[in-house]
Design brief:
Order of helices and strands: HH
Largest sheet: none
Radius of gyration: 29 Å
Number of domains: 1
Amino acid sequence: MTERETLLLREFKERLDQMIGLHQKMKADGDLLKEEKERLSEQISLLSISNQDLTKKVEDLKFAKSLAGANEDSHEAKIKINRLVREIDKCISLLNK
């Protein structure tokens, strides 16, 4: 083998080693991203269940307040609860992105 061929072979091996290293790093990064995706999906599911529970509680509270009578305090409470529900929905939509 000539000196030029030896140099080319050495350069090829170096580049191959670099590519293998990059491949391993990208594979590790991909694995981390998959784990994060699974964790976030689980978190979204939990938040969705929590949102459903809170929505049910809001409806129950509205019903209870309507039975108690309509006054200014119940109206203010409804406004605050609706605001909280909207904030929770925004958080869930941000997590879904």
